[in-house]
Amino acid sequence: MSGTLLLEQTLKTLGGRITCQRCLARSKRTKQQCKAPAIAGRKTCKSHGGRSTGPRTEQGRAASAAAKTTHGFDTRKARTERSLASARLAVLEAVGHQLGFMSGARTRGPKPTGMSEAYPELQACLKSAN
Fold first, then answer.
1. Which residue in 25, 61, 16 sits closest to 8, CA to CA?
2. pLDDT tens digits, residue range 74-118?
3. For residue 112, which of 79, 73, 75, 66 has the smallest C-alpha distance?
4. How many CB atoms are located within 10 Å of the residue 47 CB?
5. Mapping DSSP to helix (H, G, I), strand (E, B) and coil, where does residue 95 land?
6. How far does CA 72 lie from the centroid of its chain?
7. Nearest-angstrom CA–CA distance, 100 and 90
């Protein structure tokens, strides 16, 4: 699939009597353009954020700026904490398998980043035992 997608700009409604802008949102899964009309003066429909006005008060704007969210979902701090927790679990699993406390299959997938930061003293003891 090429890097650019050609999106239809207008949409005819009411049997072709009214021409309006078409929502420019695309589906992540199918890559198809939304079939709804965009809200007047906006680029997206009501389902894809066309009604959103964002924070209006100074307090709301300050809170939004202070959140430092990535893609609007969670903060960098929360992502870092979750990554470190995942690395800690991976280290404990490796130690459990090495010492014979655990058996069976290990957790699938790549090892989490930051494993060197999780329990460095435990990892040092494990390396010296080998």
1. 25
2. 777 888 888 889 888 888 888 888 888 888 888 888 888 777 788
3. 79
4. 11
5. helix
6. 8
7. 15
Please state the pTM of the whole predicted model: 0.45
> What kind and span of H or E run contains 12?
strand 10-13
The DSSP symbol for 23 reads: P
Rounded Cα distance between 70 and 79, Å, is: 9
Task: Read off the amino acid at residue 29.
Answer: R
DSSP-derived 3-state class of residue 22:
strand
User: Residue 57 — pLDDT band, cuts 50, 70, 90?
Assistant: very high
Between β-strands 69-70 and 18-21, what pairing exists: parallel, antiparallel or unpaired?
unpaired
Which residue ranges make up each domain of the chain? 8-50, 74-129
Query: Encoding tokens for residue 86?
Result: 């995942």
Residue 19 amino acid letter: T
